[in-house]
Write the structure tokens for this entry.
Amino acid sequence: MIFQEWTNNRPAVLNIAECNECQPVISVPKDAEDREVNICECEYVAKVFYSLTGEDHENDKNSFLFKRVAITDTIVIKLFKDGLELTTITDNTYGTFYDFGDLINPDLTGFLVEWEKVGTIEGIGEYKIVAEKTILGNSTTVTSVDFELKYYAPCLANGTFRFDWVQNGCILSDPIQYQGLQWYNSMRIEGKFWRKTPTLEQEEFQDTNRKTQQIQDSIRNEYEVQTKPIPSQVANLIVYNALLADSLKVNDYNTDAFEVLRQLEIRPTSIEDPEYFNQNTKGVFKFKFTDMTQNIIKRKFK
């Protein structure tokens, strides 16, 4: 992993000159055979942003939830920056900390990292969340993906979209049950949320003169998502948690997008066949969605 050393860790408002570090964004190709994937197995780093504007779409968050089995079990959550331990999470300095007993299930502990707080206090850099768990006497360490935190600018967020979701149900395969939690999570992913396709649905009849009469017309929007190569840790979070959420919203940050999408409520309709590559552990994932609210309906009245 390559780390960039910053002499000033205090946050500063990004000026236009800093946008020069943005690299050209390669459009996601339509056909798999048009895509060239670098076979170099580089470490995955997730982009996250913060700003001082208070705008939700400019300030990312990520959450982590853990469960103990016995009351004597321990789970310690730590924040690392640039490979070094920064602090043990015990309060709300860097987000929202949930100790055992704070949630409806007293055996759960978690942390919602608010990157606005992290950036304001610690500045930009490469961060990760580490949980040191001792469950029934067995010690393990769980590590998040690396998060590259920068001050928000459209040119830096270009080429990404962000899912926000709330989980409040029971996933049988998940050891953590979410009933009553209203657990929020979010993930920014490189790729596109695009190809909005309106579909017309009509209900009609022919009268005695064989003239077509409208009963009801409706329009249903469909969308596609195509990620850039992502690791299983990110893909599994999306497929086996986000797509099963009670509420799912999307923000798209592609500057060449057909339209700006902010907090659009969506519902998944299909998971397409993922693409995997030789000499690369990451995969490209494709999903289809529709609007959560289906209210583009016109009814004819006499």
